DNA sequence: CTCTGTGGTGAGAGCGCTTTCACGACCCCG
DNA sequence: CGGGGTCGTGAAAGCGCTCTCACCACAGAG
């Protein structure tokens, strides 16, 4: 069954035409008479011809593949369906354009060399990069190699905002956080604490800014802020700190749902009732949020859609997307929406 | 910075040798005098030469890439960190052998054609396939195309076990389930119910068999079995069914942790105490299991390790792995271990 | 009837690499 | 000192494809 796969040559011979004609037909068939085109297509079908992508990309200088780089050595990737959902969105969009998805998961610092070399090596036409921290070397690598790149989340490195060609997809973290905290205020909460995420990520920073916005502050009250790391353990710890420092707090805005889960755990351990004594709001609307006890009020974002948009942006920059996306590709910020449940 | 990338030719000229010699050096340097080798390596470094993979695989007939096919149109992928962890294991192993990971997420039935064509098209050297249900067309596609393939989970299609070349990595679902149920019996539980997973997957079947083993049965008691689908909602529903049918049950073995979470929810809603009234055991040891209320007794498996092993098996079959793995590659079944927590 | 288009087709170069093969240098043994 | 190795190196032939360019046939204009 799987002997030597037929080549263009074989199809040409079978159809009684030249290689060039077969090539034309395979690539859209423009400028080939209908009768010939049909004959060639029949031969292609009969022989089960599939173009050799290596040969093709050798001459076209395009690989038909895009790298998805996830630089998250932490355990976060495991517990957080975030990436899985984004990947699905990306995968769907790329598949529609017959583009392959090359997944690169970074572990240690040494991986950066490997990835950098790979990206610079012209093995892919573009890259999607995720969860970069402020000092991540990846963006500059991509930039230096001239590889078209779209970032997941607003890039935070110095000067990023000034680059007119920078492409990213972010969610309105600041607006979402503002909604969450305004909601707490409307419910009559007055001592609203915050547990941040890692502040070298713009998402965590933006959420903190949204919190400040809603309270009309420019600086957080030192007694009502604690730093987490977007994990449940971090949330547990930070909540404990907050309670020790400010026993009178009546609400907490957690940097994400995992953090909120940890906070709930600490509150339960200390015998505080949610939401009667302390209201809790998370962020992300993970599936677990709805299942938490009590069900978590949180902020929802269209994660899968963000993935799809990243892919679309990149495809447009590569000149591959459908004509639907008109104009120059530009950064996208998607809306966030409060989901009120039992915890607030 | 990113003008035309240097070719072999350029390096050869720079080092004052022939293309052939540069090629030899780049590919290990066997049979090249030390002095020349050093000179070539210096040139490679200076010019920043990276081999063009398209050209290389055109002649070697190897792509240096492996497809990871995840056929799970359900929502399961989202809520379950299972795949993320396996992917990490796979990624790590492949990276060590400089092999790329091509991720293919299947959605609808039409995707099967696309993937089938792609796999048959010689774009990858091998494939890893996940979560196949009994009637999945993918395996036969892979088989027909002669593409070396390793499966995640024991394949369940008819005749699978007879194929001496079949490669898979599975965990000892039956043994794990047996441990879990024996544990419940040791704790004095007598009416132990079971919530199964989707029975077209071998993992769900094997866990059910392990349950039967531990109870010394060949047939489940119809009053003590309910069918779930490996989701929390399914667990919730199945638990309700069981309680309606057998109010006197004192323990339940859930097909996986998500199912167990749902069961916990139903039990709580009905005012039953866990573990006093009903003991609950899950399977998988997801992070959420430890965080459930009460913390879930469950069965742990080395998920990341399974991913690593799948990759290793494939690499060995492709003749790429280190010499460490001696002998013919063969299916692997990894052990499962009971983790006792508060819920039982 | 010749000249200029026009549209369809084929010949052939060449993408950057690996790999065979031939060749020269060198060594050892007789 | 000559024959038969071994070892290291370079020349060159492709791998399967795209794409330029030349070519041919035919149409319409002069």
TrEMBL record, chains A, B:
Which molecular-function annotations from GO does this UniProt entry contain?
DNA-binding transcription factor activity; transcription cis-regulatory region binding
Listed Pfam families: LacI, Peripla_BP_3
The answer to keyword Nuclease applying to this record is: no
Whether Transcription regulation counts among this entry's keywords is yes
UniProt domain HTH lacI-type: residue ranges: 6-60
Annotated TM spans: none
Q: Which Gene3D superfamilies match?
A: 3.40.50.2300, lambda repressor-like DNA-binding domains
Q: Which domain of life is it from?
A: Bacteria
Among InterPro entries, the record links this protein to:
HTH_LacI, LacI/GalR-like_sensor, Lambda_DNA-bd_dom_sf, Peripla_BP_I
What are the record keywords, sorted? DNA-binding, Transcription, Transcription regulation
Q: What is this protein identified as?
A: DNA-binding transcriptional regulator, LacI/PurR family
The root-end lineage is: Bacteria, Bacillati, Actinomycetota, Actinomycetes, Kitasatosporales
């Amino acid at each position: 069954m799987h002997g030597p796969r037929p080549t263009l040559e074989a199809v040409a011979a079978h159809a009684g035409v030249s290689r060039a004609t077969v090539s034309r037909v395979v690539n859209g068939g423009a400028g080939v008479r209908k009768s010939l085109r049909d004959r060639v297509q029949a031969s292609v079908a009969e022989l089960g011809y599939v173009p050799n992508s290596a040969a093709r990309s050798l001459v076209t200088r395009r690989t038909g593949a895009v790298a998805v780089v996830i630089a998250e050595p932490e355990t976060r990737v495991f517990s957080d369906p975030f990436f899985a959902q984004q990947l699905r969105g990306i995968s769907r969009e790329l598949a529609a354009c017959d583009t392959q998805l090359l997944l690169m998961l970074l572990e240690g610092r040494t991986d950066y060399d490997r990835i950098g070399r790979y990206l610079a090596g012209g093995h892919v036409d573009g890259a999607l990069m995720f969860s970069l921290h402020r000092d991540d070397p990846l963006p500059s690598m991509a930039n230096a190699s001239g590889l078209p790149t779209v970032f997941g989340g607003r890039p935070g490195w110095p000067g990023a905002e000034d680059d007119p060609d920078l492409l990213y997809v972010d969610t309105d973290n600041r607006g979402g956080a503002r909604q969450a905290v305004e909601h707490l205020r409307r419910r009559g909460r007055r001592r609203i604490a915050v547990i941040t995420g890692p502040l070298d990520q713009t998402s965590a920073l933006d959420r903190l800014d949204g919190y400040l916005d809603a309270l009309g502050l420019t600086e957080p009250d030192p007694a009502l802020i604690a730093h987490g790391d977007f994990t449940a353990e971090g949330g547990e710890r930070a909540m404990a700190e907050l309670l020790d420092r400010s026993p009178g707090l009546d609400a907490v805005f957690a940097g994400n749902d995992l953090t909120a889960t940890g906070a709930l755990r600490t509150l339960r351990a200390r015998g505080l009732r949610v939401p009667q004594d302390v209201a809790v709001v998370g962020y992300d609307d993970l599936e677990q949020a709805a299942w938490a006890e009590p069900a978590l009020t949180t902020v929802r974002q269209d994660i899968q859609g963000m993935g799809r948009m990243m892919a679309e942006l990149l495809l447009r920059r590569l000149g591959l997307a459908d004509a639907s996306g008109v104009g120059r590709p530009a950064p996208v910020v998607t809306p966030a929406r409060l989901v009120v449940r039992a915890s607030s």
